[in-house]
Amino acid sequence: MDPEYISGLLDKVRAEKPLVHHITNYVTVNDCANITICAGASPVMAHHPDDAEEMAAVAGALVLNIGTLSPELVDAMLIAGKRANEAGVPVILDPVGAGATKIRTESTFKILKEVEISVIKGNAGEISVIAGTGGVVRGVDSGGSAGEPLEAARACSDLTGAAVFMTGQDDILTDGRRSYLVSNGHPMMGSLSGTGCMAASLCGSFAAAGDELLLSSLAAAVIFGISGEIAGSSCKGPYSFRNELFDTLFRIKRETIERYADFRMI
Amino acid sequence: MDPEYISGLLDKVRAEKPLVHHITNYVTVNDCANITICAGASPVMAHHPDDAEEMAAVAGALVLNIGTLSPELVDAMLIAGKRANEAGVPVILDPVGAGATKIRTESTFKILKEVEISVIKGNAGEISVIAGTGGVVRGVDSGGSAGEPLEAARACSDLTGAAVFMTGQDDILTDGRRSYLVSNGHPMMGSLSGTGCMAASLCGSFAAAGDELLLSSLAAAVIFGISGEIAGSSCKGPYSFRNELFDTLFRIKRETIERYADFRMI
Amino acid sequence: MDPEYISGLLDKVRAEKPLVHHITNYVTVNDCANITICAGASPVMAHHPDDAEEMAAVAGALVLNIGTLSPELVDAMLIAGKRANEAGVPVILDPVGAGATKIRTESTFKILKEVEISVIKGNAGEISVIAGTGGVVRGVDSGGSAGEPLEAARACSDLTGAAVFMTGQDDILTDGRRSYLVSNGHPMMGSLSGTGCMAASLCGSFAAAGDELLLSSLAAAVIFGISGEIAGSSCKGPYSFRNELFDTLFRIKRETIERYADFRMI
Hints:
The structure is a homotrimer.
Chain A: H1 3-16, E1 19-23, H2 29-38, E2 42-45, H3 49-58, E3 61-65, H4 71-87, E4 91-94, H5 102-114, E5 119-123, H6 124-131, E6 135-138, E7 141-145, H7 149-160, E8 163-167, E9 171-174, E10 179-182, H8 195-207, H9 213-232, H10 238-251, H11 254-260, E11 263-265
Parallel strand pairs in A: 1-2, 1-3, 3-4, 4-5, 5-8
Antiparallel strand pairs in A: 6-7, 8-9, 9-10, 10-11
Helix pairs in contact in A: 1-9, 1-11, 2-8, 2-10, 3-4, 6-7, 8-9, 9-10
Pathway (chains A, B, C): Cofactor biosynthesis; thiamine diphosphate biosynthesis; 4-methyl-5-(2-phosphoethyl)-thiazole from 5-(2-hydroxyethyl)-4-methylthiazole: step 1/1
GO molecular function (chains A, B, C): ATP binding; hydroxyethylthiazole kinase activity; magnesium ion binding
Function (chains A, B, C): Catalyzes the phosphorylation of the hydroxyl group of 4-methyl-5-beta-hydroxyethylthiazole (THZ).
């Protein structure tokens, strides 16, 4: 894996403009749609079961995010997820707030049981809750994992069969066998609502164009992190940061990615 | 029709501040509210049947957008639409994704059957699906019309009795008898989620102040297009474009409209 | 009460990062989440009854906003509100559009009857409707109160037992016994959708850290107003205003607050 792979995958997303279907929360949904466009893909949001099932079958990827869940919405996720599985469409799960309330934890496990998830993107608390290694989640923020983050990520991958993208100061990505640490990113990403959701949208965008889910998720982490670093270097607060983040990703070039990519196998 | 009519209609919106009631999607709803304010009108969003019915009766216009539809939401649209019809309130329909899934197509025709729609705002694919001339819609993006766009727009107007505003590189507006081509606009409008929805909100804002639905929709297309051109000339990406788009529309002056308006009868 | 109290309370929010649980509308929810972060608190949105009840019990404050209400959503507000009451968590109510439609007015009174509300944040029309002094509400905008605003605010507080934060060109805050007039603010706050909702989110953020609800709401009004003034002094329209508003609040310093705070007892 080298940075050229990552920039090549971005070129592929921009050329193919894959449809990325989201069933997501109403808090950050607009930023999810726009970050998908900035990556070169085409977002669609459809949450009613009939609509979601039909969209999932023709999408390049399906992103499930439980940030503002209800049992009906989780049912729609199950229907769309199963249809995506049948159609060979990769499914990204963002288990927002798993561990914070009973319904969020149970819904996460229900989705993981009934749908074959390709990539789980979560913070250390959420991933550790899935892994059963002891995670703390307060609202939708991570309180951290009880043990070593990499061990939790690996355990989560082992249990679910999914590639795992654990966000944090450094991101950890693993498919259980191979693991990467991504040092790209900026502290301002923690001061803007929905950067985690956006990362999942990017996982979907790149999964639709890639053929290896660990590597396409790594590409998402690196490109989003670099965009964050560039945006963070000149912003005055969360909203100027957001403007720069989206605009930077939209026009990011191969040479920028290859120059700033900062990841390694661990 | 001359540019002075358009700038005069904007003055009227700003003076009257008409209430524009939306039943719309949760992806772009915030931008719809704010673009309505930028035009000088007053947005309100109310989707529960009782709330929607009461709001529709006192509004200056009603905007229906099926971007994230459900059967319950479509029912609310029917109730509010019928009440708007009774009260003489113009109804704008944005058939987002008609043609992409069965429920979106069926819901569009159901609304068109039960509610008298004043203006249909859609992309070439959506308008052609309604016209029955063969349109392609992928997610919520147009894959184009099978035949000539103007013919599809005219056929859509003939079938529905509505004025039709077909968005594209050039916009086409027609009421079946008279047709206009609007060349204002900027490619960046295609790189920001929800510009189509915003155009429908502007149709509502201007319909509430105008007395001819084709001309008020033309005013919306021209003023939005000019704002896009100005914003696009200085932006770095979708979010700086959005900032400029809204701020430009908010403070646009008569002379700017009259100088840059670029439309003709076809 | 002096400005040092206000800046001290902001420091406390930033140090404690209280969880502020929202059950709110889908129009302005993203700005509500981000303004909460900009104040130093941690937002969470959860609207399903089970999720909302569990979140409310562990939150530092609960914000209820009926901007896009449905009977189901109001039921969730009642459940979460009662749980918050049991747990001693302050509850902020934003009765968006009370007086504009029957369901909004009735829902407001239902919530006030079943939940002990700590702070009511509304415009003059909404507060006067609750007070029964004769208010006018058009869509979600205030048409003003029939009588003297301060009298309406006091009557609203007397009737409900809540501290009242009435927004307007000057804000009025009262707990029935003590009353304050806040002159901070900027006209651009009226040209951006959701500034009222954001004010309620800030009331929640400060209520979670303060021990007197009138004073924590006053702190919210003053800090938000100062941020608006600074943002308004350099903006070109609603979206550059929004960017500056959020960024200014995010980095506001003690000395800025103490220098610009403009309020007095009335």
